Sequence to fold (746 residues):
Amino acid sequence: MSDTNNNNEWDSGVSRRSFLYSLGALVLSACGGTAGSADAASSSTKASAKAVSDAQSVTLAQVATGQTAISTSGAFVHPGLLHTQADFDRMAQKVAAQASPWYADWNVLINNSHASLSYKARPAVEIDRGGSGTQNYPQLYNDIAATYACALRWKITGDTAYADKAVQIMNAWSSTLQRLGGDSNVDLAAGIYGYEFANAGEIMRGYAGWASADFAAFQTMMSGIFYPINVDFLNRHNNTDITHYWANWDLCNIASMMAIGVLCDDHSMFDAAVNYFLDGPGNGAIAQAVYYVHPGNLGQWQETGRDQGHNTLGITLGGAICEMAWNQGIDLYGWDNNRFLAGAEYVAKANLVQADGTYLTVPYVTYTNVDVSQTVFSTNSQGTIRPCWALVYNHYVNRRGLAAPWSTQFAQAVQPEGGGGNYGSTSGGYDQLGYGTLTCTRDAATPASAPSGLTAWPAAGQVVLSWWGVANGTSYNVKRAAASGGPYTTIASGIADPLTCTDTPAAGTWYYVVSAQTSSGETANSAEAVAVTTVQLHTDLAFDESSGTTAADATGNGHTGTLNGGVTHVAGKIGNAVSFDGSTGYVSLPDSIVADVSDFTIAAWVNWNGNGGKPWARIFDFGSGTGRYLFLTPKNSSGVMRFAITTNGGHGELGINGNIALPTGQWAHVAVTLSGTSATLYLNGGVIGSASNVVFAPWRVGPTAQNWIGRSQYSADPYFSGSIDEFRIYRGALTADQITALYQGT
Fold:
């Protein structure tokens, strides 16, 4: 094990099975390099690769979520990473006017030794992080801090002496550095220092005193030495299980790829970074990084059960990624109902010390990966302060007019932040560039006109509502109607924190809106959210066709099935059925078939041939690959039926093992239900297993494009062999009596 830098990431494992991931341009050849072979326990050096290729527009493939990947083209905005020219104009104006709080942070900057004309660069041929060799990476991160600080001084004052100092440091490195090395911790060096150094170079790219050949040499260094390690790590994760590395390992390498892509005008590199953040299989993808969104939009960060030093670093890196994308016209901040803000608010609330020295509590669900199962919130390093909150607060509150109360409090508590390892009251080493009060603070925008992002999820007869507030909101009102558009009745008021409400209406379909109370009165209502609290048939595939490849959905909801491979029509339990050959046959269902479903029932008649005794065939499996899915198998490796649902692969599955395998050579009725967190597995109308800890509902799995009857997300699992009839999905959990009636055909 190694821990080579305080408050930084570390790798505590050895190589496991290879996991290759290719998303469009996310392959090493995008910049002409070759994949390395560094192992988590290895001390071998990762060699440099060839320079960046010519910029090109690419169209990336549709991913397993069914969404079309982001593809950019045309000219990048320059400067266009953490700061744009408009940002520098604002900083210069505020500093010249000695305006608060900008000027206070300016004074912190100019008093930092890294921002001095007397600073001396210390370039090296090789930078090592981890392993048994000399740990000289502080030379690199100190010089990056100096480059960034001097670049800021030039952009804000126009003093070219500081521009020349920044160029001098970058030229020294681009003419000297040949490789990054060490053990697997080199991946952190390439990621963290890669995105930071690229940002410094992006600021300076327009300076007339930086010769074009020298700028090109800097680009070559970034694309040929840093980028190949970034992309190799995201592709292979050093041949470990995909859940082994914590989120920050992915995030820093995503940030570096994104920054180098803009610096080098390489769309394929930039697009690959964006799409990995949106849909990648690793823990740095936003759906895995913000592991679980609790009521009130509190997003449990992936490292919450580990320690708060790493948890806060996740916000630093995630925020940098979102800001760099934003400045190129892509809104990662708002993705999936502001999922990043949910994570930031959770981490801020958990780490902001109160006046009495205590911390507020936050909800927590168990997190499990290949190495650990963490059942409680970790108080280790609680209260860690990093200079990341100004960026979060200013985007959501002062750009968007939303409420972000905990990020706001943190930003105001720690300003003015320093940089270059000298953060005043803050900590965090050189994992971030700092000076957020100076660089990110914006004048307040007009608050949003109404609450937004309202969600309403049925759970065990109740409806759980969450929403995003407005920047000037003091409390919130929840209203319900029996018809879309109202009239609405206020069912709760005075809600301040967290922004959630649990309603217990009668069975039916209900429509909800939320308004805010402000100092000037009540806002407009939010957009409407609907919740169904009665059992409704969602999908009904009778499979009564006698030919063709289409299976009609009798509900009229358009959830048509498509027969693929070795599937034929045969006599069924009721009318006809479909028969699967156990080799290539399966039925596919529309994308995101259960992405808007909370409580559910899935039932079918099944005549299983036994798959030759092989386990893990699927009756159904809805997912987006081996990371996010829900399935029912007639027999697992323990010889019993199993239902499971996960948002973190096989290690994170929650579900039920029945007490028996599905019988073979006969028609049997199977059903699985979820009500709140209680799941029940039925065979022929009787309960064969249950669990009370299933906190994942189908909507938490997210968008899916691999929704299959008779086929598994795992390619090594056998295709189902036998027949299936009367496949049904219901919104809501049928009762035991209703399951019995369904089995008996009454």
